[in-house]
Amino acid sequence: MALNGWKSNLRPHLSRRHLGGLCIAYLCLCSSSFKPWGFSPLSRAEQTTIFVVNHGWHAGLVIPANVLGHKLEVISPYFDSPAFYELGWGDSGFYQAEEITAGLVAKALLWPSESVMHVVALPMEPVSYFSGSEVVALTLSSEGVKRLTARIAASFKYDSNGRLEKMRPGLYGQSLFFVGAGTYHGFNTCNSWTANVLASGGVPIDDWLSLTSGSVMVQTRQALLAIKSARVAK
Predict the structure, then answer these.
(1) By C-alpha distance, which of 108, 95, 87 is closest to 184?
(2) What gap in Å lies between CA 139 and CA 23, rounded to an integer?
(3) Residue 56 contacts by C-beta under 8 Å, 6 or more apart in sequence?
(4) What SS3 string covers 1-48?
(5) Rounded Cα distance, 104 and 10, in Å
(6) Could you please report the per-residue DSSP string of the chain?
(7) pLDDT tens-digit readout, 181-233
(8) CA atoms of 100 and 21, how far apart (whole Å)
């Protein structure tokens, strides 16, 4: 399922913006290269592979359905036993909009706003499902996965009975929007959320440098390279 053009009409084409992106990428490489991986797996048996997907404007996070844990298990009743879940957090108005306008973009970046969680049930490996998008696989330890899923669970808003607040069907496939926790603004974006969640699982990444999907992917690839180099060194 090719989704690499998702909301691609928002991609700017100004060379100044491209130069800015290169500067951010350079800062990401410098910053993340000094941070070590956390919660290293003690054995292959406790390794879990998660995925980061580049949708152009937004970087999504994919985890296996069998590692939701107690806190995140609350999403499973809404879906039909998928193999994986893709999760994302973002501005309520922008994320759900069928047509993106300059006003929506400005509002999302300049004014603090309510947030939503987007959950997609994937019936297959994300590399196949998102065949037209860049997908990077990362291996986490059981402790890393536990912390990562707890951080994701904390991004949902719950009613007085501890249940999720479902909103409407999502953007593609079998997906739903839920009311999110936290406020979206120009320095707390969908991409900085993805970076923050990855960092909670031990991935060496800085959320303050992750305002764009490109910056998330640069740091994700750098983290992957770092762990591969460490294994070779051993």
Answers:
(1) 108
(2) 28
(3) 4, 5, 6, 7, 8, 11, 133, 213
(4) CCCCCCCHHHCCCCHHHHHHHHHHHHHHHHHHCCCCCCCCCCCHHHCE
(5) 11
(6) ---TTTTGGG----HHHHHHHHHHHHHHHHHHTTSPP-S--SSGGG-EEEEEEE-SS-EEEEEEGGG-HHHHGGGGGGSS--SEEEEEEEEHHHHH-SS--HHHHHHHHHS-EEEEEEEEEESS-HHHHTTTSEEEEEEE-HHHHHHHHHHHHTTB-B-TTS-B-EEEE-SSSEEEEEEEEEEEBTTB-HHHHHHHHHHHTT----GGG-SSHHHHHHHHHHHHHHHHHHHHH-
(7) 999 988 899 999 999 999 999 999 998 877 899 999 999 999 999 887 666 55
(8) 22
Q: Quote the pTM value.
A: 0.83
The first and second tokens of residue 44, run together, are 């292959």
Which has the closest alpha carbon to 201: 75, 67, 89, 82?
A: 67
- For the record, the structure tokens of 170 come out as 């999502």
> In the Cβ-directed half-sphere of 11, how many Cα atoms lie within 13 Å?
14
